[in-house]
Amino acid sequence: MASQKPPPSLPQNPELRKDKINNKWVVFSPARSKRPSDFKSKSPVSDPNLTQSQTCPFCIGHEHECAPEIFRVLDDSDSYSNWRIRVIQNLYPALSRDIQPHNPGLENPDCGFVPGFGFHDVVIETTTHPVHLSDLPGSGVGEVLMAYKKRALQIASFDDIQYIQVFKNHGASAGASMSHSHSQIIALPIVPPSVSTRLAAMKEHFEQTGNCILCEKLPKELLIYESRHFVSVVPYAASYAFEIWIIPRVHSAHFHDIDKEKADDLGGLLKLMLKKMALQLNNPPFNYMIHTSPLRIDDSQLSCSHWFLQIVPQLTVLAGFEIATGCHINPVFPQDAAKILREVNVEDSEEIFKEVNVEDSEEIPKEVKVDC
């Protein structure tokens, strides 16, 4: 008897889902893709071992080729030349720290002009060119996160700065102009409209339900992994295929309130998610962004505003419909993406969290030379 083929699975119908946190709609159209498990990056990040530049200004020994340094995190030798992380000014900043800060919009909300005062910094995450952030131990990623915190607290002392955006571009098609592993911090004299929209949506949900929307229990089918202090999920109305959010389990409005223990835990979970994504999606270019609250947030909004880290693999290109409407088309349903990522086996996943020393109470690693 000839073997029978299993019946083909029924295609899922398209859906529109409301992203209540960012107050927008997302179209889910699985007919536009292959099976979710076959979704791979068509332009993976090339092997850094093959593209290493001998003249990279971010490599150790080339510090003099960079823009001015703000501070560095030293290694265990305590020698100034032996650093692990450097925070420097961006050589081509989007905003200028050298102009007179003044925000006429604070006195006149209808004012359509604000001088471009602000900060644009680069966080060099490792001394070694071929090493990616996900190659560091979880505690090493945690040190990078603590460097973000340190710099954010320094910048927060400037009254004219309203919002601090931490982000990482990995791969040329994700916006990275340097292949050496790094991330960036831009501090703005205004609160971006997307942040204001997110805060308003979170506040509306809180007023209607009495709960922070990110503190509410999420459906199990969207869960990828839980650590001691954080949970990683695919959001219910993900704008991008295989988008991941890492959310603090305990309510927190500002990223810069993180402590060393939580930073190490987040570092382990971020490392794990990046490894899962690389294995499943053919090492795609990606961006991650830390969505925190404005520095001068009203006290009434602290209970409804909850920070999170968003990871977006660059698998598709925004086209005319998305640009025109603001509605993204996602070819992979979130529950399918979460299931696939849950099942990706990372060999050292248990070791990632064993290496974190939760008894270490040191707030900031050894640092020198602070100059805003």
TrEMBL record:
Residues 14-192 form the Galactose-1-phosphate uridyl transferase N-terminal domain. The active site is at 182 (tele-ump-histidine intermediate). Residues 1-11 have a biased composition (Pro residues). Zn(2+) binds at residues 56, 59, 129, 180. Gene3D superfamilies: HIT-like. One of its GO terms (molecular function) is UDP-glucose:hexose-1-phosphate uridylyltransferase activity. SUPFAM superfamilies: HIT-like. Keywords: Carbohydrate metabolism, Metal-binding, Nucleotidyltransferase, Transferase, Zinc. PANTHER family: ADP-GLUCOSE PHOSPHORYLASE (PTHR42763:SF2). This is Galactose-1-phosphate uridyl transferase N-terminal domain-containing protein. It comes from Chenopodium quinoa (Quinoa). The gene is LOC110737928.
